[in-house]
Amino acid sequence: AHETMQPRVVLFASPGMGHLIPMSELARLLASPRHNCAITIITKALTVSSSEKDKGSFLSSLPSSVTVDFLPTNHDHSINSFKVNDVFLSALNSLPDLREALRSLQSLSRVVALITDFLSVDAVAVAREFGVPFFVFFPTNLMALSFLLNVTRIDHETTTEFPDMPVIQLPGWCVAIHGTDLGESFQDRKSEAYRMSLHMAKQISKADGILSNSFCELEPALANILKEDDPSHLPVYTIGPLVRSISDQQVNMSGCLEWLDHQPSGSVLFVSFGSEGTLSSEQLVELAWGLELSRQHFLWVIRSRNGSSDTTILPEGFIERNKEVGLVVQSWVQQIEILGHISTGGFLTHCGWNSVMESIMSGVPMITWPLYAEQRINAKLLVNGIGVAFRPEVQDGGVVHRDTIAAAVKELMQGEGGRDARKKVLELKTAGGKALSEVGSSFKDFAKWKSSIVM
Ligand code: UDP
Description:
- The protein is α/β, with parallel strands linked by helices.
- The protein has 16 helices and 15 strands.
- It has helices spanning 17-31, 84-93, 95-108, 124-130, 142-157, 192-204, 220-226, 256-261, 281-294, 318-321, 335-339, 353-361, 375-386, 402-414, 416-436, 441-451; strands at residues 7-12, 38-44, 66-71, 110-117, 134-138, 209-212, 236-238, 268-272, 297-301, 304-305, 308-309, 326-329, 344-349, 366-368, 389-390.
- α4 (124-130) links the parallel β4 (110-117) and β5 (134-138).
- The longest helix is centred in the C-terminal third of the chain and has 21 residues, at 416-436.
- Belongs to the UDP-glycosyltransferase family.
């Protein structure tokens, strides 16, 4: 009887927005009439502060063939943290619950694949127990992926700490990086985080394949290498850009869209550091002055931290002085709507890969402000590899000075460099759209992935 049942794909996502958002887009794609799968997303309950209660509302706009199962959090305190270690441990702690969930799904339906994000890869053991093909969803680019796929080898071959390596350049990379551009886990080889990252890399190598939220035309040389038809390689499928396609009417946007409606076309710099990013007080003040000195229009989303709002740290009178040209909001916004608005002309971003993909698909060039994880790699790729962004230089003491910020903002919004970056980003937008179309590389790769599992 099972053979006649609709195939079900199970997605296991750690609760960070950067994983959950693209994985729900993957669910939407699988549920579309063309693929006609039933989907279960398994994740942990989201913990959200009251100002950000809209965070998870996109889950309720998923099609009816997508169910979302929230695993018990078991008083798991690490759930409030988005540090790689904590997310990793939290996923590990969930394995018994995942096993139960999978058992009951399998008794009711035909589970054809388990896809987890790259921090939940210990789930490979559960997939194997049930004889279900196991795939890793890698929510970022091929460059970061190829580093992970090579890190075990590098670990064997060298003893030098990554930050002490002069440059790191792997085959197919369009730009070299420094060890300091790697995420926190790679800054100290004696750390627990490093050990966990090596473990994660090892688990990834056991998967039946990897689905990356990048597309061939964005990283062509590396795509060629990673996607070679070579049985000794782990199959890599580029299926991006997966970005939010449906807007969420329920989200209260604090008047952002109405405000944008009143700004000149392409005039507004959108400033946001993703779902978790915050700046030091000193840096926040410099950024405020930088925006003011640039005399450009801006829409700035400020997160609160430790329950208190960053807006209290802003220079005195900042909001009032800039009210003609600038809006500061503290709530969760629908970023995709803001980036897609005609008035938005630039994005100062922490370079989370979802933000990058959304910016590219909205044709908006960027100023890079990487904060954590693989974001410094993303910034190098965008600035030096692809040419769709600028990076204001960090001065001694690790702070970006107000004059540097003002100059970068002016250049992006008004300068020659900004024009070039905008032209390039529009080309990529077209290429990204084409990759998803029926003749495109990502469409074909997704079909190839699908034909690799028994439906
Ligand atoms: N996002 C949003 N509203 C906000 C902040 C973030 O909709 O106020 C979305 C953003 O559009 C993106 C995701 O949250 O899809 C953040 O993912 P990203 O990879 O950019 O960064 P992360 O938060 O994982 O660091």
